[in-house]
């Protein structure tokens, strides 16, 4: 089983299906599916893992304060797109969608039920180009209102992308101790450094 690292949308369709993803010896762990190709998610670093935990805690705390009926998680939950299966690092999902998945013992969540999705960039990996370009297009096409891209180089940065007319436009971009404030899906006010500390 090989992983395709080419992020060109014109790259030929691969031979793999969602069933192949789960019938592999690894049961799909460590891979996403894109256009019939298995995309290896590099083993996340300690900083990547901490930031993912911090984002999930941030989203869960903000949702609780707002009294929102949402489900917050990330990592192993899978979302099926027309040509991909993705496992975002952190997300905010309609609460009813998670309950329906659990009640049906289903495998995939619908990306159209997402309010926000966040990816932490793993530099020099096959998934980096997907986080920056391919997923940006996929997530926009699915109608996900907000996409956060988190990067550590050259400094800890959160870039917010907001959906407008079917495409993402650049929203706030904050670094280090700069304050990020968003109003949707509910109020979140935080600095990138604070998110990182929340993951401890």
How would you portray this structure in words?
With 200 residues, the chain is of the alpha+beta class. It has 5 helices and 13 strands. The strands form 3 sheets. It has a 6-stranded mixed beta sheet with strand order 3-6-8-9-10-11. The longest helix has 21 residues.
Gist?
With 200 residues, this protein is an alpha+beta fold. It contains 5 helices and 13 strands.
Mean pLDDT: 86
Please bin the fraction of helical residues: 25-40%
* Number of β-strand runs: 13
Q: Report the span from N to C terminus.
A: 35 Å
Shape descriptor reads globular
Unreliable spans: 1-11
Q: Mind telling me the C-alpha Rg? A: 16 Å
- Note the total helix count: 5
Biggest β-sheet, characterized?
A: 6 strands, mixed
How are the strands of the biggest sheet laid out side by side? 3-6-8-9-10-11
Element-level helix/strand string? HEEHEEEEHEEHEEEEEH
Structural class: alpha+beta
Percent strand = 25-35%
Key structural traits:
200 residues, disordered N terminus, five-stranded mixed beta sheet, alpha+beta
SSE layout:
Layout: H1 18-23, E1 31-34, E2 37-40, H2 46-66, E3 70-73, E4 78-81, E5 84-86, E6 90-94, H3 95-104, E7 108-109, E8 114-120, H4 126-141, E9 146-151, E10 157-164, E11 167-175, E12 180-182, E13 188-190, H5 192-198
Helix pairs in contact: 2-5
């Amino acid at each position: 089983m090989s992983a395709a690292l080419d992020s060109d949308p014109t790259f030929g369709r691969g031979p793999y299906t969602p069933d192949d993803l789960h019938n592999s010896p690894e049961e799909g762990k460590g891979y996403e599916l894109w256009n019939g190709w298995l995309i290896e998610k590099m083993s996340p670093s300690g900083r990547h893992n901490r930031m993912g935990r911090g984002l999930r805690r941030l989203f869960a705390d903000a949702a609780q304060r707002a009294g929102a009926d949402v489900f917050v998680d990330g990592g192993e939950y899978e979302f099926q797109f027309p040509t991909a299966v993705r496992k975002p690092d952190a997300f905010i999902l309609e609460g009813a969608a998670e309950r329906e998945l659990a009640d049906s013992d289903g495998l995939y969540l619908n990306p159209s039920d997402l309010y926000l999705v966040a990816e932490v960039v793993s530099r020099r990996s096959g998934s980096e180009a997907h986080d920056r370009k391919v997923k940006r297009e996929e997530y926009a096409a699915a109608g996900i209102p907000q996409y956060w891209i988190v990067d550590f180089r050259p400094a800890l940065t959160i870039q917010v992308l907001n959906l407008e007319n079917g495409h993402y436009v650049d929203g706030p971009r904050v670094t280090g101790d700069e304050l990020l404030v968003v109003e949707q899906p509910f109020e979140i006010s935080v600095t990138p450094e604070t998110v990182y500390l929340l993951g401890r």
